[in-house]
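COURSE: Structural Biology Practicum
ASSIGNMENT: Worksheet 4, Part C
STUDENT ID: 0417
INSTRUCTIONS: Below are two proteins. For each, the amino acid sequence is given first, followed by its structure token string. Answer the questions at the end about the second protein only.

PROTEIN I
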Amino acid sequence: MDIVFSSTTELAAAIRDRKISAVEALDAHLAQIDNHNKAINAVVMLDREGARDRARKADAAQARGDALGPLHGVPFTLKDTHETAGMKTTVGFPPFADYVAKVDSPVVARLKAAGGILIGKTNVATMLGDWQSDNPLFGRTSNPWDLRRTAGGSSGGAAAALCAGMTPFEIGTDMQDSIRLPAAFCGVYGLKPTEHRISLAGAFPDPGVSARSVRLMSCLGPLARSVEDLSLVYKIIAGPDAGDTDLAAVPVEDMPALDLKTLRIAFAPFFPGFPVAVEISAAVEKLAKQLQSAGATVGEANLPKLDLHDDLAEGGALIGMMLEAAQLEPPEQPTPISSWFEALARRDRSILAWDRFFETCDALLCPVAMTTAFPVCEPGTSIAVDGKEQSYWMLPAYGAVFNYGGHPALSMPCGQDGDGLPIGLQLVGKRWSESRLLGIAQAVTPLTGGFRRPPDY
């Protein structure tokens, strides 16, 4: 058994069936971190002894015949944004360098209650504010496929650690493509669920116990090397929580087994006015043809009649208003409350337009980002796409559209470009349809080849 590249589901089953112990699973992942993390810099904090103690206790519990959770004995890392009792949470921001939360966030508590063993934290962009993972505390994370290129951000450490076999799953955050873009760059899977599906409480360090301002557009979601693992972890962390009134009381369903012949797939090789590499748009068209040959009903998408550039700008404005509310001192000219409600009304129109679109199809197939993993650069530097310079700020555009709308979206690996870098494509579904979207991705996976292990790992 190749422990470090086994799926979460396989690891949990192997531990449950006593084919391997929790200690063996932990030691294999720690060895992989020791062998490869110096070059990649994905894992920035480790709790070796604490994790080993928890692994020994997990093995002892199993020996006693205690009930086992779905993640019993499975080691995992977490993006350095989740509040964790006894372990620092810094978001790569020097003022938070020594912050340790008193309690676990709801998501962390659920993962531990399911039997998972937290071993460390993974790198992020400073304050989660960029699409490369680099910060003054821990430095830069590189892409396992090419160390000269970015792993993406802000969940870049999470995606790189997964790709390199350092962890079997991760939990990212996504306000503007921050799960899906690094998942695409590193060739793993990432799910941004419907807004208000997974608790955001404790998803950002809060030393001052201030009012939680980020209540819209941002989501937590799993990253993994298979759709089955996304589904397993998603079911553990999703659903109402007694401490978070934002969460919708919508049932979290099992991932269904779906036949491609029953599905209606709309595809868009690009969005009007959004740049995208030819190899990525060609991958969308190729997969659409494969789906049609496999019996799915496939057609080019008649996208909602929205100005998507305006939606991106409005989404940015909403983020700005939320961040303004989080400031310790209000600005001299604070945004009037009427502007907030006008922004919400504009967002409602976009959400409803996409809701009507998804009445006509089961999923939309489209790009995740305008390019594959690009060479590390200063934030704001223009990015070459097919030899043409494009705005750095358009990197998350294909994903951020669905943060603005709140719809669930999934990044899946779909082959490689001419430089041997992973191509990620995006599947998007109607709100609250995560389980069905996962089922669609599972049905599509035989056509895409799924996760590919990078060379030398």
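PROTEIN II
(use this one for the questions)
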Amino acid sequence: MTATTDTQRLVVLTGGTSGIGRIAATELAAQGATVAVIGRDQTRGDALAADATTLDGDIRFHRADLATQATVRSLAAELLDTYDRIDALVHNAGLSSRRRSETEDGVELTFAVNHLAPYLLTHELLGQLGTSAPARVVVTASDIHRRATLDFDDLQFADDYDSLQAYARSKLATIAFTVELADRLEGTEITANCFHPGFVPSTNLFRDAPLWTRLMIRAAAIIPGIGTTQREGAQRLCKLVTAPEFGDRTGTYVTGDGITPPSSEATDSENRQQLWEISADLVGVDPDWP
């Protein structure tokens, strides 16, 4: 097991081998943290770890495809076996699938990666976060959630799949999850916050999106003044991980304008409770956690 000192924070960061995740991983390591980066690409992960040798902190790569629940559980076991503390758990991995497909668990892919993986990984690592407290859970969300609803009659788009709507709903679910988690952790020293990184045209997030979506994003990338840079998005992530004001603030949604109310769909207590219970059933855990 890797021991860390009281001043050397351990940050678990999913989706850390490209885009804002890669920049954030490097920045956090430069500030002295040990960053356990989770990603699917071994080559990118190894290169990122090698590039961190001159930084004050350290980057360790763990390969995992978060689409399957068995892999999420295996990853959690690996992290618990490797590190003696977790000071921050950052859920940054995400995708947008152009066609509806299901994982081996029978869950729609975008919903599985963007929402259920953070839900399950948090469940598996919460004990370690508690023993490392004060600790933080940070989730990459999106303002696109405002165009979505939680249709509990067809939560996974079994009928009339639309890739952009599926992505928007998955991000709505992540915000509802974050707010509900924060409420359930009230009185502990674990905070839970989420943020909108801005529209980042150069991200790989939409690599599996329909052609028209990818073309639109590429066009936006070359128009001055459109969108947010990857570095700006990464800075928002790092702020939630390190800024003192988010050491005790919890249940917030942060945009470029600061703390901003998310949609009422995300904060509605009945929505949050129902989504929590459905998610627990889908991943096979007791819904009464934590």
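ANSWER KEY EXCERPT:
Q1: Residues 109-132 form the longest helix (24 residues).
Q2: The radius of gyration is 18 Å.
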